[in-house]
Write a structure and sequence with these properties.
The complex is a heterodimer of chains A (318) and B (295).
Chain A: H1 2-29, H2 34-39, H3 45-55, H4 61-73, H5 87-122, H6 127-141, H7 144-158, H8 182-208, H9 211-218, H10 223-236, H11 239-252, H12 255-260, H13 266-275, H14 279-307
Chain B: H1 4-7, H2 12-25, H3 27-49, H4 81-87, H5 90-117, H6 119-134, H7 139-148, H8 152-179, H9 182-189, H10 194-230, H11 242-250, H12 258-284
Helix pairs in contact in B: 2-12, 3-12, 5-8, 5-10, 6-8, 7-8, 8-10, 9-10, 10-11, 10-12, 11-12
The chains are: A mainly alpha (318), B mainly alpha (295).
């Protein structure tokens, strides 16, 4: 158990370190640096050299990597390419907003997904299951910008019930995003409910046909008690990892939805930085998102190990 | 009069022909194949049948509602919406049709090799795979597009590279399932090289999993491609593309909703079609994908 725990933690650390190397090396290898981007056409001769000297870009790559990585480890990502913004400060604001959005989607989505998944799993191949499963395929496959557009068209333009875009500035307190963040939350909830629900459904089906449930049925345990006390606890365990992937996705990758609704979160900050070619910000955000992904998955794996004794043997999870 | 020697030997083509027929027999597979087939046919013949030039501007007809001349009205530049709708899937289908085989070849071969090779090479490679999987989806693609441009010669290899990484994992897992079987052991005992074991034993036996994976990846790749194009990192105007049309037409959709509806229905039906086909294929081949968390 302890050996497994240590191995899993070490894997997480190694992955984060590799990610930092990939990001740093990627920016090194790609043509252009912070100076050529800011100076644009003036980027030549002495001006370029001075700029590189000021930003310390004339030092060897290895030295700069150590500086960048140790700064990042302390939560300090330096300043943006144009020298105007302190990255950590701006990122903190956006992280707060992204957490707000994620919290909204998760608090509605997870209970809903589990409920629907259990219903569909118990009613396997009957009407309720076919209805829920088909709806899930639609929710999963229709692009987010399409469902967002339909939502805006129907509920904002035709019915006038919801605001179409977020106009609140990024540094506003969380409460001011109400009700503007509702449409974005709905779109995200739809997608995540579909993914989690499918997982819960197949897990419920598997557990309900297992021997211990059959045993409980045969010895006359009432159906409701079988489902709640025997089947659900083990059926919901595998859902932890899907929920973790969803959390990581919500905290990092919801670029499209944030752009569509003009929501000032991490996703939109990243795409703005990419459009501006602001390499220091891109590096910082990609690093942050990747680290969140690794951390959330690590927590999920540890939680599964804690709750499921079968995972505690020393066997590699591929 | 079945000849004993011929009916045991099924060729690659006849087996997949049979699988395709089985897929078409399932309701989801039939709908999926119909949608995909329809989109492919439209993509091929549309340049010959479109009523207008897709880049012809008409300043007297800006945001005109549908009528007999312009079946789906016109857009903000006075271009015919129906024409651009018919042509709008070509780029996405072309790019993904070229990128998916590359994805599966690089991801599949790499995964099968690592699964067979094992040892420190496998360990190091899988740590790299983990690290790449932690990179947030669409963002590395956007960085490549910003730096190298949005041409197909950039998009196809970039998409194939990043989509191939989760495939490595799947192919490696599928290889682990067969690598301990007796026939692989026998091939090893006969002294076959790794290459020959991969080609003769492992690839044929992981092919089903890889085909399902490829069909699934295709639907995600179409989604990614259209998201890129929606965000302005895809095909350059005036080439018509649904993602881009939706992004343009959204702006004035309270005045002219006909501009967004067509491309939204077309794009969604294509992606749903691919997804349903992939689902039916997975069921036909007995591969359960819903248990695996999506990466």
């Amino acid at each position: 158990m302890l050996a497994l725990l240590v191995r899993r933690l070490a894997l997480g650390v190694v992955t984060v370190w590799l990610v930092s190397v990939i990001i740093f090396a990627g920016v090194e290898v790609l043509p252009g640096d912070a100076c050529t981007v800011v100076l644009e056409r003036d980027a030549q001769g002495e001006v370029l050299e001075n700029c590189r000297k000021n930003l310390g870009l004339d030092r060897p790559a290895f030295e700069r990597y150590i500086d960048w990585a140790s700064g990042a480890a302390h939560g300090d990502f330096g300043v943006s390419a144009d020298g105007q913004t302190k990255i950590s400060k701006e990122v903190a604001l956006r992280v707060k907003n992204s957490i707000l959005l994620a919290a909204g989607a998760l608090s509605v989505g997870v209970p809903l997904a589990i409920f629907l998944g259990v219903i569909a799993g118990l009613a396997r191949d009957r009407f309720a299951d076919i209805f829920v499963s088909t709806a899930a395929i639609f929710a999963m496959t229709i692009p987010e910008f399409v469902s967002a557009t339909i939502l805006v068209l129907v509920f904002s333009i035709w019915l006038g019930w919801l605001p179409a875009v977020v106009l609140t500035p990024a540094d506003a307190p969380a409460l001011e995003f109400w009700p503007e963040f509702i449409p974005a939350t709905i779109v995200l909830t739809m997608v995540m409910v579909a993914h989690i629900m499918r997982m819960v459904r197949s897990s419920v089906i598997e557990v309900m046909s297992s021997e211990f449930v059959q045993m409980a049925t045969l010895k006359g345990v009432p159906y409701g008690r079988i489902v709640l006390r025997h089947a659900l606890p083990s059926a919901l365990l595998p859902a932890i990892n899907v929920v973790a992937l969803t959390v990581a996705w919500l905290l990092g990758g919801v670029v499209v939805v944030e752009v569509v609704f003009n929501y000032p979160g991490i996703g939109r900050m990243t795409i703005d930085a990419i459009s501006d070619r602001d390499l220091p910000i891109i590096q910082a955000l990609v690093m942050l998102i990747a680290a969140t992904y690794v951390l959330v998955n690590l927590v999920a794996d540890l939680a599964s190990m804690l709750l499921n004794p079968r995972l505690r043997t020393l066997r590699m999870r591929s | 009069m079945a000849d004993a020697t011929t009916h045991t030997r099924t060729t690659f083509l006849s087996r997949w022909g049979q699988i395709l027929r089985d897929v078409a027999r399932r309701p989801s597979g039939a709908i999926g194949l119909f949608l995909v087939g329809l989109h492919i046919i439209v993509a091929i013949i549309s340049p010959a049948i479109v009523p207008y030039d897709f880049k012809a501007l008409d300043s007297s007809l800006i945001l005109a509602p549908p009528d007999a001349d312009h079946w789906l009205g016109t857009d903000a530049l006075g271009r015919d919406v129906f024409t651009r709708l018919l042509l709008g899937g070509r780029e996405a289908l072309l790019v993904c049709a070229l990128a998916i085989p590359l994805t599966m070849i690089w991801g599949g071969l790499m995964g099968v090799y690592l699964g067979l090779r094992g040892g420190w090479v496998d360990e190091v490679a899988m740590r790299l795979v983990d690290a790449f999987l932690a990179l947030p989806g669409i963002l590395p693609l956007m960085v490549f597009v910003v730096i190298f441009g949005a041409g197909n010669e950039v998009l196809i290899p970039t998409l194939a590279f990043f989509f191939g990484i989760p495939v490595i994992r799947v192919a490696r897992g599928a290889t682990h399932d067969v690598v301990a079987r007796d026939y692989v052991l026998a091939a090893r005992a006969r002294g076959h090289s790794r290459l020959s074991i991969m080609r003769r034993e492992l690839l044929p036996n992981t092919l089903d999993t890889l085909m399902v994976e490829g069909a699934m990846r295709l639907s995600w790749m179409l989604l990614t491609f259209s998201s890129l194009s929606f965000l302005g990192f895809g095909v350059a105007p005036p080439t018509p593309d649904w993602g881009q049309s939706i992004s343009e037409a959204r702006v004035y959709m309270s005045l002219a909703p006909w501009g967004v509806l067509g491309p939204m229905i077309a794009l969604s039906s294509l992606i749903i079609g691919v997804n349903l086909t992939a689902d039916a294929l997975a069921k036909t081949l007995g591969i359960d994908r819903s248990r695996k968390a999506v990466v």
